[in-house]
Amino acid sequence: METYTDDRILQQPIGYWSSMAGRAVVTFIRATLERHGLTQPQWWTLNYVADRPAAVTIDEVVDFHRGFVDTDDALRPDALALIATGLLLEVDGALTVSPAGQQRREETWSDVHAALATIREGVTDDEYITTVRSLQRMIDNVGATAWHA
Question: pTM to 2 decimals?
């Protein structure tokens, strides 16, 4: 890893570094999910449905994610694909996770946890917290908002 002096880091463009970090991390996570036959939006959908105490509709899945992921209605085809492959069940518009979906979810989580550990390797909890809070502040400073569940 190339490192810079503190003075040089202070001259670096945050837009570049935050964008490159986001792109690299998302690519890494998507590759992990792909090994399990899932897209990232399918993973969000599967987990959202599994974590609800009662069945939900596709509209509820889409509306919830619209708040923090730039998906609009693009999540709808991913939910339909999960139904088509039998990972989600839909009865009268209500979604639940099938036994096959729950098994896929459990199998995938171990790799997801390993991927997240790789991403955070060498980064302390305090550094991670400082990084996220700094990015939140910069977003706020430019009059934008960001939210994540």
Answer: 0.89
